[in-house]
Write a structure and sequence with these properties.
59% of the residues lie in helices and 7% in strands. With 322 residues, it is mainly alpha-helical. The strands form four sheets. It has a three-stranded antiparallel sheet with strand order 3-6-7. Strands 8-9-10 form a three-stranded antiparallel sheet.
Length: 322
């Protein structure tokens, strides 16, 4: 019996393997990206509903009949990354359908419901968890619309992204902090999605928001980390710093960036011969590492540390954020 497959994490896997392939030209990474991409478009994708259900199961427990706005955007961006390196139209075809369904199915005014029940596509009632209510973090998934607009020239996609950007900018200041330090750390992860989207779609008017956001996340991270620290928050913040320095002329705080890079590597699991060698732990509570490796944390940490190493040897330029 197999556990259910997360379609969102599979989407992140596609983007990560493409990133590794482009850096190394090792075709094993491209093969892995194609296998994951084909699973998404041929198995996970629902042609009748024109969406990606939250999970997929071949056996064992049936998946919850849900679709997430955030997940669909991450998957779409993964498929577009794969289309760019393979030129295979089937990835772009499904990405286009998913982009239109995201706008059509999840929208309520200038807000996007985070979760729909399937097959009726009815909004799930919002709850207190950040992932179960709309928020500025959704802007990262909305990058799929910006990317589709750039590829197709369809102004409708640019309009979708512009609406999402306006909503995120109007609401982001209330996203932090949460009611407890631990929950604030979780929200830092989500708030970094917002910052990632800003630097990925940079325009000069966004520079003050990016700079202030970096300072804000850095302060909370350092206040809370002795109690609870997530590896991905360090990685996400470092990626935003490096990209903001490159594309937005935001001054890089070298001391804090170096500290974040060192923190990332403290989370790496290293045991030669172990199948999980090289992965990254999710987080740490106090002095105790939380006992599970996380594939998305691993993807973010890999990219952040690679970019940091590039900077140390004077290699310029950063690629798209996974």
């Amino acid at each position: 019996m197999n556990a259910r497959v997360s379609t969102e994490i599979t989407g992140y896997a596609v983007s990560t393997f493409v990133f590794l392939y482009e850096r190394t030209q090792n075709r094993d990474y491209l093969t892995a990206a194609i296998q994951a991409g084909q699973f998404l478009i041929r198995t996970a994708w629902s042609p009748s509903l024109k969406t990606f259900p939250f999970e997929h199961s071949c056996d064992g427990d049936a998946p919850q009949p849900l679709a997430y706005f955030f997940d669909c955007g991450i998957i779409t961006r993964g498929l577009l990354a794969l289309w760019r390196v393979t030129g295979e139209s089937e990835y772009l075809d499904v990405a286009l359908q998913a982009g239109h369904s995201m706008a059509r199915d999840f929208a309520t005014g200038n807000t996007w419901n985070p979760i729909l029940t399937l097959p009726g596509k009815h909004p799930l009632p919002w709850a207190s968890q950040w992932s179960r209510q709309p928020g500025c973090y959704q802007l990262k998934s909305a990058l799929a619309w910006r990317d589709l607009g750039a590829i197709t020239g369809d102004p409708q996609f640019e309009l979708y992204f512009s609406r999402a950007l306006t909503t995120a900018l109007a609401t982001h200041e209330g996203f932090l902090p949460a009611e407890t330090p631990a929950r604030t750390m979780d929200r830092l992860h989500a708030y970094c999605y917002f910052l990632e989207a800003l630097v990925s779609s940079y325009e000069p008017a966004l520079r003050p928001v990016i700079a202030q956001g970096i300072t804000r996340v850095s302060r909370y991270l350092r206040e809370i980390r002795s109690e609870f620290e997530r590896s991905d928050v360090n990685a996400q913040l470092l990626r935003v710093r490096l990209m903001a320095s490159s594309v937005a002329d935001v001054r890089l705080n070298e001391e804090e960036a170096s500290e974040e890079a060192a923190s990332i590597m403290q989370f790496q699991f290293e045991r030669l011969g172990d199948s999980e060698h090289g992965g990254f732990w999710f987080g740490r509570k106090g002095a105790e590492m939380m006992p599970f490796l996380n594939p998305v944390s691993t993807a973010f940490c890999l990219q952040a540390y690679e970019w940091w190493q590039d900077r140390q040897i004077g290699r310029s330029g950063v690629q798209a954020i996974i």
